[in-house]
Design a protein that fits this description.
- Helix 4 (118-140) packs antiparallel against helix 5 and helix 9 (216-243) packs antiparallel against helix 10.
- The protein is 75% helix and 0% strand.
- The longest helix is centred in the C-terminal third of the chain and has 45 residues, at 324-368.
- The chain has helices at 2-38, 69-74, 83-106, 118-140, 145-174, 177-180, 183-186, 188-209, 216-243, 251-270, 288-314, 318-322, 324-368.
- It has a single domain, classed as Rhopdopsin 7-helix transmembrane proteins (Up-down Bundle).
Length: 369
């Protein structure tokens, strides 16, 4: 009995000691992390970073260029002019993943996915791709000129992937038979794939070709392919808006809200407001690109709910309505689009690398004499 008491007492002390050690280690790790944050270089003004990294009417809050990668990763927890851009898309990505997980569990998608579910999976993956690529680009782009170009090329890949993933989901879950028999409906998927790739290619080209001060045709090069892709995607939703009674179609309200949010987001992407009227006062919070990110996140979450509603109403009849062949073609076309977009970004990165090397050699020659 005494022996049993001693053993119990010893085990209790051992557990207390282990818990205390773990708590001490956690406290030490947290303390080290906070101290590393306090040692991060302070943000600087626009005049202290190269022209490539400056944004119109944003005068402060820039992270200095040329530090280690760890600095830019840790700057996720620092206040600078990209903080909201990063966190808005990171949090939206978490919401997308959690919502899809709940949806999959509620409606029994599980590990087994039939062809009817594949466009939905591609759609959710495309959402996560564009949100993660965007957050990564805005978080790490200040590392160097090459990193800046390469990471924004990655961002444009995410945009292309999202555009086509969205097109697949809308075509299979949200379109009416009458629209699919129209001329637009017949060419919808090939046209959507082409415009998605063009969005990536044109954005990469505009980023590579134009420097500050940016001319108007740079913005047009970015906006026109994306705008055409959005008009194409919106055509099937618009047809439903004008041909159905909204009370009979709960997804239509969500689609309408999503369209309004996207148009508002597009406005702030094209127009640097309100910072244009208050230079230096919207640097950390409130400038146009932050509003664009925030509205786009809301747009994404709203569209996801609309697509889920449409999926539930179409899932049972999808394979019979479209046929396995068309679903298989769509299943193959998505990774092909991803591959083409990534390849485009890789080629553009190599062109940037070659140009930067030439500029470095030219600078060395000038210094020599």
């Amino acid at each position: 009995m005494y022996t049993s008491y001693c053993v119990t007492n010893f085990l209790g002390k051992a557990r207390t000691s282990t818990t205390s050690t773990k708590l001490s280690m956690t406290t030490h790790s947290l303390s080290s992390f906070l101290s590393s944050l306090s040692l991060l270089p302070h943000t600087v003004r626009d005049t202290e970073v190269p022209l490539l990294f400056r944004e119109p009417y944003i005068l402060s809050g820039y992270r200095p260029v040329g530090h280690s990668w760890s600095f830019y990763f840790l700057s996720l927890f620092q206040i600078h002019n990209e903080t909201i851009n990063v966190w808005s898309h990171l949090l939206a990505g978490v919401c997308v993943a959690l919502r899809f997980s709940v949806f999959a569990l509620m409606y029994g998608l599980g590990l087994y996915l039939d062809l009817a579910c594949l466009p939905l999976v591609y759609y959710v993956l495309s959402l996560l791709a564009y949100l993660c690529c965007s957050a990564t680009a805005h978080l790490l782009q200040s590392h160097s000129e090459l990193a800046h170009y390469a990471l924004f090329f990655l961002d444009y890949v995410g945009v292309a992937v999202y555009q086509y993933g969205c097109a697949l989901a809308l075509y299979f879950y949200s379109s009416d038979p009458a629209w699919r028999r129209s001329r637009v409906g017949e060419v919808f998927l090939p046209a959507a794939a082409l415009l998605a790739w063009l969005s990536c290619a044109c954005c990469c080209f505009a980023k590579l070709s134009y420097r500050h001060p940016y001319p108007l045709h740079r913005k047009l090069c970015q906006v026109v392919p994306t705008g055409l892709a959005y008009l194409l995607d919106s055509s099937l939703v618009a047809q439903r808006l004008f041909s159905r009674t909204w009370g009979d179609d709960p997804a239509m309200t969500l689609h309408t809200i999503q369209m309004l949010l996207f148009l508002l987001a597009a406005f702030f992407f094209c127009c640097p407001m309100p910072e244009r009227f208050f230079p230096g006062h919207c640097d950390i919070i409130g400038h146009g690109h932050q509003l664009f990110h925030f509205l786009l996140s809301l747009c994404t979450l709203t569209q996801q709910e609309a697509v889920f509603e449409d999926f539930l109403s179409r899932r049972a009849s999808l394979t019979r309505e479209y046929g396995e062949c068309r679903l298989l073609v769509a299943a193959v076309s998505f990774p092909v689009l991803v591959f083409c977009s990534v390849l485009t970004a890789v080629v553009m990165r190599r062109l940037v690398e070659r140009r930067l090397r030439k500029e470095d050699r030219w600078g060395e020659e000038v210094e020599r004499g």
